[in-house]
Amino acid sequence: MPTLKFAVLAGDYIGPEVMTEALRVLEHAAGQENLTLAYIKADVGGAGIDNHGTALPDSTLKVCEQSDAILFGSVGGPKWEKLPPKEQPERAALLPLRKHFTLFANIRPGLLYRELTDASPLKTNRIPDGIDIVCIRELTGGLYFGLPKQTTTLPDGDVQAVDTMVYRKSEIERIAATAITAARARKKKLCSVDKANVLETSVLWRKTVTDYVARHAPDIALTHMYVDNAAMQLARDPNQFDVFVTENMFGDILSDEMAVICGSLGMLSSASLGAGKNSLGLPFGLYEPAGGTAPDIAGKGIANPCAQILSGALMLRFSFGLEKIAMRIEAAVKKAVTSGTRTADIAFGGATVGTRAMAEAIIAQL
Ligand code: NAD
């Protein structure tokens, strides 16, 4: 029986709650196709700090290195908030993981089912069929990583801080390649978002994406948009986009805007793909819900497990090449939710179910 080898890093607060249910759904879906899950659980974030003294213990990193993918929950919360910033769970676990595995491409589906349009702050007549777009964010370059990055006191006594926005052509080309793959699997429409009227890096970005698409993907309809306009267009008419691709900081902001217009964080998954290949010759990746650890609802058994389950589906698609099972899981989530099984975050005052019952409804649809 083929086995799927992945690391399970559930993290903190609702992390383990939704992870337990996601694993049940994945076990079920895999079992139906005669596949076996061979996952290893490891501590990360606050759990890493409590049990090993660090947010990303060496033993956890080793488990990840020996796996074909990482299924990640979420980390952090009030318990560790007083630690110095560098030791905080998110900063000390997620950023090093991204760096260690060169996870340069963040893929975030912006999905809102037609039946859930009330969850969006947008007027429902703007999104009569819900929302279905994809954001591809470059994750390891640009302003967040460029050097110098420092604060200095000037000779006149004033204080100055510097961040550096830097991109290489090769970095832009590899994210363009990811965006092309994503666009090909959809409507073949790709919008590249930049600030080429002001930023040197954006001029290179635009030229590189244009050349790369012309050379490698003439079948893709490529457009360009300035980031300030993109922020407005997302709120005005999100479905004018199919796939959009952008650099790190712009993607950070636009993907959060996208999450808000799509309603609950409990429904949104994400994939961060690495430059390296796994033992199957497919992209190594880290798969996680868009939301955080939701300490306000942790321990109550009411968190929505869908984002974690859908992240598992993305893992099957990208790191294991199992498109058919991924689609089956996505369809089962959609059917369960649209036929009325809802956790509190997507119930709008109607009947609600807990985390376990939501997963069971999805398994029933499978
Ligand atoms: P959050 O995403 O945890 O919660 C924001 C709101 O969304 C809350 O009301 C929460 O109840 C709700 N929510 C989130 N996921 C949900 C789900 N699955 N089901 C139902 N409701 C859900 O954001 P926050 O409160 O700003 O952050 C809490 C902690 O999580 C912080 O320590 C933050 O640093 C951390 N965090 C971690 C990650 C990560 O691990 N990648 C991402 C974001 C935030």
Q: Layout of helices and strands, plus pairs?
A:
Blueprint: E1 3-11, H1 14-32, E2 36-41, H2 46-52, H3 58-65, E3 70-74, H4 89-100, E4 103-112, E5 131-138, E6 146-153, E7 159-164, H5 169-184, E8 189-194, H6 200-216, E9 221-226, H7 227-236, E10 243-246, H8 248-261, E11 269-277, E12 283-289, H9 306-318, H10 323-338, H11 355-365
The protein binds nicotinamide-adenine-dinucleotide.
Nicotinamide-adenine-dinucleotide binds at residues 14, 18, 74-77, 90, 94, 265-266, 288, 291-297, 303-304, 307, 345.
Structural class: alpha/beta
Give the CATH H-level superfamily of the largest domain. Isopropylmalate Dehydrogenase
Strand order of the largest sheet: 2-1-3-12-11-4-5-10-8-9
Strand tally is: 12
Described by strand count, sense and barrel closure, the largest sheet is: 10 strands, mixed
CATH architecture of the largest domain: 3-Layer(aba) Sandwich
The unreliable regions are none
Distance between the termini: 20 Å
Strand content: 15-25%
Q: How would you sum up the global shape? A: globular
Query: DSSP helix count?
Result: 11
Return the CATH topology of the largest domain: Isopropylmalate Dehydrogenase
- Over the alpha carbons, how many angstroms does the gyration radius reach? 20 Å
Just give the CATH class of the largest domain. Answer: Alpha Beta
What's the SSE pattern?
A: EHEHHEHEEEEHEHEHEHEEHHH
Number of domains: 2
* Estimated helix fraction: 25-40%
Mean pLDDT: 96
Small molecules in complex: nicotinamide-adenine-dinucleotide
